[in-house]
Amino acid sequence: MKLQLPEDDLVACVACGLCLPACPTYRVTGLEIASPRGRIAAMQAVQLGGAPIDAEFTAAMDACLVCRGCEVACPSSVPFGHLMEAARATLQPRRPAQRRFAEWLGYRLVLPHHGLLLALTWLLAVAQRLRLVPNRFGLPRLSFRSLRTPLDADAHPDVFLFTGCVMDAWQREVHRAALTVMRATGARPGLPGVHGGCCGALHLHAGLDDQARALAKQVIASLPPEGPVVVDSAGCGAAMKDYGRLLDTDGARAFSARVRDFSEWLAEQAPLPLRPSGTTVVVQDPCHLRHVQHAEHAVRTVLRGGYQLVEIDDDGLCCGAGGAYSVTEPSLSAAVRARKVDAIRAAAGDGPFVVASANPGCAMHLAAAGLTVQHPAELVEEALP
Amino acid sequence: MNRVIEVDVEARVAWVEPGVLNLDLSRMVTHLGLHYAPDPSSQQACTIGGNVATNAGGPHCLAAGVTSSHILALDIVLADGSVARLGGLEPDVPGLDLRGCFVGSEGTMGIATRIAVRLQPNPPCVRTLLLDFMSIDAAAATVSAIIAAGIVPSALEMMDARITRAVEDYVRAGYPRDAEAVLLAELDGLPAGVEAAVAVVDRVGREHGARTVRVAADAAERALLWKGRKSAFGAIARIAPDYYLHDAVVPRTRLVEVLHQVYEIAAAHELIVVNVFHAGDGNLHPILVFDARDPGIWDRVHAAGDAIVRACVAAGGVLSGEHGIGLEKRDLMPLVFNVDDLDAQARLRDAFDPDGRANPQKVLPRGSRCGETMRVPEGAWV
Hints:
The structure holds two protein chains of two kinds.
Chain A: H1 7-10, H2 24-29, H3 36-47, H4 55-62, H5 69-73, H6 80-91, H7 97-110, H8 114-129, H9 144-148, E1 159-162, H10 166-170, H11 172-184, E2 189-190, H12 201-205, H13 209-221, E3 229-231, H14 234-241, H15 243-247, H16 250-258, E4 259-261, H17 262-268, E5 280-284, H18 287-292, H19 296-303, E6 308-310, H20 325-328, H21 330-348, E7 354-357, H22 360-367, E8 373-374, H23 376-383
Parallel strand pairs in A: 1-2, 1-3, 3-4, 5-6, 5-7, 7-8
Helix pairs in contact in A: 11-23, 17-19
Chain B: E1 4-8, E2 13-16, H1 22-29, E3 34-35, H2 48-54, H3 61-64, E4 71-77, E5 83-87, H4 98-102, E6 111-118, E7 120-121, E8 125-133, H5 136-148, E9 155-160, H6 161-171, E10 181-189, H7 191-207, E11 212-215, H8 219-230, E12 242-245, E13 248-249, H9 255-268, E14 272-277, E15 283-284, E16 286-290, H10 297-314, H11 339-352
Antiparallel strand pairs in B: 1-2, 2-6, 3-7, 4-5, 4-6, 8-10, 8-11, 9-10, 9-14, 12-16, 13-15, 14-16
C-alpha cells in the first residue's frame, strides 16, 4: 500500500510554519504532528521516504478536521485539503472492519437514501420525546409537524434551493426560512427532483471518493440545467462548488459555477428592508464558508440591517464540528470547541446573544455546548417586516 | 506554558509564559493601546520563549531595539534544578546584567519559565511607504541615505524582484511585479513629525531612483503590505519547493557590495537566491531556493551558504542577526571570535551550567574552553 498524492503538491510545503496558528488541533495540543506542517511531513515521509503506513500515521491523518484554515494562511497555497482527502482515500481499505461497517451504515445506507434517513429521523424524534437523546448531542428539537409537511416549490422557478440529506431531516425549518426569504426578494425558488439528497461532502472527507462522485452526479442530475443553486449548508456548498474538480467534466464545472451559499446569493439581490432589532448576533464563520468558499462577508451584509453584529477575534478558527469529526474524535473536537466557545463569549460580552452559523454541523456542535445558534436565513426571516 | 499571567497597564509590563505566541500577546493588549514591539516575520507562529532564546529581531526592531531591550526579567530554572530570577522590574537593577546574558543564549544557560516583557504604547500616527526601484543597488543605496538623512524609520525592509512577485501572487497588495527591488518603510510618532519624515523618505527615495513612492492610504492597506512582507519565506514554494535561509548582518554602508557578492556566489553554484531582509539594520536574509530532489543539490547549497556567510563576515559583519548559532554556525564561530573570546564565553556559560546539560553541544564549538585542549580524555593514547 502506497500513498499516491500529487508529488508537486506534496513538496510545495516549505515548512515555514505560518499555518500552525491557523490550525485548531495544533492550537489545542501544541504538537507538531497535530499541525498541517507535521501532517505534510508525515505524508512526505510515507510517500517519498518509504516510512510505513502504520497506526501512528493513520491517527495523524484522522486527527485533522479538514477545516482548511491552513490553506488560507499558506503563502505558497499548498492544497492541503485535497492532499488530506487523497491520503484518507488511500487509508480507507485498511480501516478496521468495525469502522468500515459503521461507515457503510452511515455513508452508504442511510445518507444516500433519503426515505430511510427520514424514517430514522421519525424514530429519533420519538426517542427525543422519551428523553433518550442526551442534550450534549446538540440535536435540534425535531418537529413531527415539520417532518410531516413537505417544502413548497414555486411554479416556473428561477432559482433552486438545495435541500440535502441530514439538513432536510433535522433542520427543515432552516430551508423553510430560506424559501421565505428568497420569495421576499421576488424570486421563485424551486427544489431538487428525486435523488437530490446527499451532496457527498462527508464521503469525500472520509476518503470515500467513488461514492462522493456517484452522489455528485445524482445531485447534478436532480436539478434543471440553468439557474442559481442556493445552498444553506456551508459544508455542502463548498463540496458542490468543487464538483468541477471532483468529476472533471464540463457539465460539472458549469454546475459548480451556479452554486451559491444562501447569504452569498441574497447579498447579490436588491437589499431587503429589515426591521432593526436590538439583538446581539455573534457571527461564527463556518470553515467551509470562510476558508473554502470565501463567502463569509456576505453573511454580514445580509444580517447588518437587522442586528447588532459582533465579530469573534480568533481569525475564523474552527469550532471543532468538522462533519463527522465530533463523533470520530470526540476529545479533540471538544477541546477545539471549548476554545471557540470562550472566544464567542468573550466577543459577546455580558447580555444575551445569538450565534449566527451558516452550517448545520457547526450549529449543532455549538448548540451542544449550550449556545443559542440560528442560521442566517432564520435571522433574516425573523427581521422581515 | 502558554498563558499571559498578568498585564500591568500603568507600568506597561506583562508577565508571560514562554509558550505565548508573539502576535497573540500584541493582540491581547491592543485594546489597552499597547503592543509588544519586536515583531519577527514569523510572529504569528513564534513564541516569546523562542524569541528570548535567539534574541529575535523583526522589522520594527530598527527603532525599537531587538528582544533583549524588551525583556525586563526572567524566572529561570538552571540545569541543577535550582530556580532564579534574573533582572527585575526596577528601572536600574543592581548587580551584573545576567538577564542580558540569558537573552540570546539559545537555551544553553537554562530554561525560562516566566518572562516579564515591556509593552509599548501604540503610536498615535503611522505611515507605511512602498518605494520601488529598477535596480537593487538603487534600493540599497536609498537605505543608507535615509538613515544618513537623520531619519530612523520604525521599519525599513527590502525585497528583491523574485520574492516580490511570489509575495504578490499570494497577498495581491499591489506590489509592483516588474520592479527589481522594493523598500517598505514605516514611520511612526506624532503626526507632524511623521509627515515631515515621510517627506524626507520620499525625497531621498526619488533622488536615488525610486520609480514610485506609494503611501498606504489606511490601516487595511498597511496591514496588507505587511502581510506580504511577513509571508515572504512561506511564499518561496511559488519559486521552488525548498529553501535554505541565511541570516547574517553587514554594516549598512556595505549593503550594495555584499548583495552583489551574494548574487555572484549563488550564480557560481548554479542556485537561485532571493533576498528579503531588514535593510535598515543591515540584517541580510539571503534565501537559496532549490528543489531538494535534484541529485547533489545539498552540497552546492551548503557550499554557497558557507561562502555567503564568509563574505558577510569579511565585509565586517557577524554570523547571525537573529536566528542564532545553534549547530549550524557553531563551527564558524572562530571566524568572528578568537580563542580568548570563546574561552570567556565558555566560562560564562559554565557559571550557569557547569555540566553543559542545557542544550548541550550548541553555540560554542568544541575546544572553546582554553583548558579543554589541555585535558587529555581518558583512554586516549598520547
